[in-house]
Predict the 3D structure of the following.
Amino acid sequence: MSTAGGKPKKAFLTGITGQDGSYLTELLLSKGYEVHGLIRRSSTFSTDRIEHIYQDPHIQGTRLFLHYADLTDGHSIARVLEQVKPDEVYNLGAQSHVGVSFINPVYTAQTVAMGTLNVLEAIRNSRLPVRYYQASSSEMYGKVKETPQNEKTPFHPRSPYSCAKVYAFWQTVNYREAYGLFACNGILFNHESPRRGETFVTRKITRAATRIKLGLQEKLYLGNLDAKRDWGFAGDYVRAMWLMLQQDQPGDYVISTGEAHSIREFLDEVFGLLQLDWKQYVAQDPRYLRPAEVDLLLGDSTYARTRLNWKPEVGFKQLVKMMVDADMEIARREETLKKAGHAVRGPEMERGAKG
Ligand code: NAP
Ligand code: G4F
């Protein structure tokens, strides 16, 4: 069990309701932590990804606590921090969709850049001996200067999202250098899972392909199919976050698989598992093209593998199968509802929004 002064360690997470927040919560609870998470007020529940943990009678109200606050409201962050007095803070909250950041650049900067500064300031003013993790991104490499990308590769951000992440990266380094904060940047390459948001390309594809297989959807509309990404499994990546905060010294680490695939290859793999030819179902919609694209991301995580003794456990084909299997279960449930005469909402309903 992870303890501080004989008591269970306390972690505070922003973004607990997101993909990574849910996996990190499971990991921290398995290590004996008391976990505190920030949630935003919304008119519908946003806690689907952590509902199974929250409802566990051994955890609810004793080891997992949720607090209303918002990254754009520094006072709310400071209040929660003073109340919780955590040992570790994981700043995962963000408007994390690159495509949407071109539509809402100011809000994206408010959550990603100013939100990070709000968390760092709250920590500094609290004078608590906190260890801090910043969710930095491979998107910062953008128009890449070298391949593969490592901790020394210069950044060239290509979207409002990645410009804001570069700001947050350097503020994290600055608080380490200026105030001696134990602050780490995890420069994480794309990581996916059955809990991935449905408007990111991998999940959009696995949701659509499984629905197409069952006759619930006819077409899948996508943008640029030539981009390549280094896709890993989110469950592996949250382990790296935790490991960074357990070291003697803070640092910045690239976390990646070291293998890149194009969107076309991802489509081949997904539709192949379902014995379908994706070319019959996929069409291009210019609304999903971005004003500036990131063509290739491929990470070199040698430093993390040696210093943290970290490596990914789940490979590309295994990840795709995991996502297809999980989405096939959802599609089957939708099929049953449809047969019973209920309206089912598929990702196609979201075509009005960019994804
Ligand atoms: P995600 O699923 O989109 O989750 C984002 C989280 O941020 C959600 O919990 C969301 O809350 C919260 N959030 C958004 N705006 C907020 C605000 N104004 N105040 C407080 N919370 C807010 O993202 P993810 O994939 O788990 O990624 C976690 C972090 O890692 C993000 O910072 C992302 O930018 C970064 N990252 C992700 C990847 C990746 O491939 N997944 C790679 C590199 C870096 P609601 O549920 O209420 O919307
Ligand atoms: O799945 P994506 O939206 O992920 P993207 O832009 O790489 O960003 C994700 O990974 C980053 C780490 O590198 C994170 F920091 C960030 O928060 C997020 O989690 O798009 C991947 C690629 C892009 O090249 C995009 O243009 O897929 C292409 N794509 C093609 N059609 C599409 C679509 N992306 C989306 N979302 N929707 C499409 O229809």
